[in-house]
Write a structure and sequence with these properties.
Blueprint (H helix, E strand, L loop, with lengths): L11 H10 L4 H6 L8 H18 L3 H14 L3 H20 L6 H14 L7 H15 L3 H18 L2 H17 L3 H18 L5 H9 L6 H15 L8 H4 L6
Helix pairs in contact: 3-4, 3-5, 4-5, 5-6, 5-7, 6-7, 7-8, 8-9, 9-10, 10-11, 11-12
Length: 253
């Protein structure tokens, strides 16, 4: 969920990876890194792409596991080990939250290991904080514990200029605000998340942002947003798969 390659990155490889990733072509994006995967950085990035594919599609678990083990095997420094542990935590989280297999304990353990390995100034810290927030909110059902983690991630993403991660933190903080009845704050956060994704061209993440904003808007705007989200969802072949239930119209009463 980190925004590598998004904000005017001058590296042609990273720009190519971003163009594929932003349209849901994770396997193709990861293939561009295969020849570089003997080095820790590219190995972790390749893993992250395949883990994201699992979360959005519910498929590709074996490939992600293989890439993760390869990234762990080439890690030499604490920073590299911590980054790999962060991806292991995310893969275990995805498997648990999508109901593939209960790996909640593994998710917590891996993210705890990442926290011990990564320095406070590590560029991976904001992403780690965000993922620990996800585990607290969705696996431990502890939204009040998730909020400070999301806020740390939000501040870190802003300081690093990671606009994609910022779009995620805006969205999840807004969801907590909506849960607490803070409608104006929720609407603001969802709107900012959508704006950032549109500016970045993160097409695969735009439909979820539209659907989220619809939850905080009155009619008829809410229906318009859901219709636009449904259009994009169909255009992208039903990805992310977990969005389908949110876009199903309620039966008339």
């Amino acid at each position: 969920m980190s925004g590598t390659g998004t904000a005017g990155d001058e590296d042609p490889l990273q720009r190519a990876i971003w163009r594929l990733r932003s349209r849901g072509c994770w396997t193709d994006a990861a293939a561009l890194l295969e020849s570089h995967a003997a080095r820790p950085g590219p190995a972790v990035q390749r893993t992250a792409l395949l883990v994201e594919r699992c979360l959005f599609t519910g498929q590709g678990w074996a490939e992600a596991e293989d890439a993760l083990r390869a990234a762990e095997s080439v890690a030499r420094e604490d920073e590299d080990r911590g980054a790999a542990a962060c991806e292991r935590g995310q893969l275990a989280y995805a498997a648990t939250v999508l109901g593939v297999r209960d790996r909640a304990d593994e998710a917590r353990s891996a993210l705890g290991r990442a926290a011990a390995l990564l320095s406070p100034s590590s560029r991976f810290r904001p992403l780690l904080d965000f993922r620990r927030g996800l585990v607290a909110e969705h696996l431990a059902d502890a939204p009040q514990s998730a909020k400070p983690a999301y806020r740390r991630a939000h501040a870190g993403a802003a300081s690093q200029g990671d606009l994609l991660l910022l779009s995620f933190t805006y969205r999840h903080l807004a969801a907590l605000a909506l849960r607490e009845g803070e409608l104006a704050e929720a609407r603001r956060g969802f709107s900012e998340s959508l704006r950032l994704r549109e500016e970045l061209g993160f097409l695969i993440g735009t439909a979820p942002a539209l659907a989220a904003l619809a939850e905080a808007e009155p009619e008829p705007e809410a229906t318009r947003l859901r219709q636009e989200a449904a259009r994009l969802f169909r255009l992208l072949g039903g990805i992310p798969t977990w969005l389908a239930d949110q876009l199903t119209p309620s039966p008339a009463v």
